Amino acid sequence: MKYLITGGAGFIGTNFIYYMLENHPEYEYVCLDKLTYAGNLANLQKAMEYKNFRFVKGDIADRKFVFDLFEQERFDVVVNFAAESHVDRSIETPDVFLVTNVLGTQVLLDASRKFGVKRFHQISTDEVYGDLPLDRPELKFKETDNLRPSSPYSASKASADLLTLAYYRTYGLPVTISRCSNNYGPYQFPEKLIPLMIINALNDKELPVYGTGQNVRDWIYVTDHCEAVDIILQKGKEGEIYNIGGNCEKKNIDVVRTILEKLGKPESLIKFVKDRPGHDLRYAMDTSKMKEEFGWEPKVSFEKGVEKTIEWYLNNEQWWKEIINGEYLEYYRRMY
Ligand code: NAD
Ligand code: TDX
């Protein structure tokens, strides 16, 4: 079996590649990644030592390039992680989100159709469902819910989901989709909440909390997400959507306080800043389908996951110090 893993030089893709190399050494893996600001070849340094892994630099939206690659490689399985993934950047510059997340996915779907891929798996997000009110804790997103995306990012991801389902219905392409909640863990780009707060706290810099900090996210440690995707690839039914979540709802302010406490830093570092436009209030996933069909449940507690994540950022200072220069610094100054 030959796997194409797109976006594998980013946060979740990198973790997924290591998860698969360890758990399925019998398969062959090709990672296709454009190496945008969020992609980092250094993440895959150890993967390059495996004989059954190869890296290819390229753009999923480049039709000629993608078709040539599929013709040469004859992939059995495609797992599409490649995306522009940051909500705040999508508010600033939506165009690239449509090109990569929508048109890029379409190119991959077309190539998968033409070259007879046996499974196309689209990595999606809870954000396609929109948000839930803060005062109705009993409500959770189900796979059958309507899509109500709020940001250009989530609208582009919802569009990709709809295209993926259309290729199943119209052309019979064997697809599956997983929609996961907020991930955290090693290799996450410092623009996202948890690594940003860890790095700022380590540097005794202010921790910018949007609005009142009452917005709620459902946090999952990245290896739990990787395991769930692997199970769906093995046992998932064609044409189906699967919610993946951490069953771990937290207010942003509580996440930030936990990080400060674990690092022994003062709460006076917290600074409430201007809210994100259109800021989704609450995400919460109903993951009963994953539990009932496959017995899958997240394993890593938030407490343990945050400790492991902090440890990783402490042990990999060089990794993030190289990132928080240049383009990132310009972005940071514009944002905060
Ligand atoms: P990331 O931004 O860390 O990584 C994205 C990767 O995609 C990078 O390596 C980048 O270089 C690559 N890429 C971007 N445009 C490309 C293109 N045109 N062609 C080829 N490669 C390209 O993102 P992430 O957080 O690892 O997210 C991975 C996937 O998971 C995305 O599809 C995202 O929507 C989804 N997701 C993320 C989360 C989360 O909490 N981070 C939650 C649910 C779903
Ligand atoms: O500086 C910040 N301050 C702050 O209060 C940042 C970067 C974020 N926040 C808030 C906004 C959100 O309520 O923290 C929460 C989490 O923010 P992000 O890390 O930007 O994640 P989110 O917008 O929830 O989206 C993430 O989860 C779903 C990923 O980035 C998406 O790719 C994924 O689809």
UniProtKB/TrEMBL annotation:
Top EC class for this record: lyase
Keyword NAD recorded: yes
Domain NAD(P)-binding: 4-309
Pfam family, one: GDP_Man_Dehyd
UniProt entry tagged with the keyword NAD: yes
UniProt family annotation: Belongs to the NAD(P)-dependent epimerase/dehydratase family. dTDP-glucose dehydratase subfamily.
Name of the protein in question: dTDP-glucose 4,6-dehydratase
Natural source organism: Fervidobacterium changbaicum
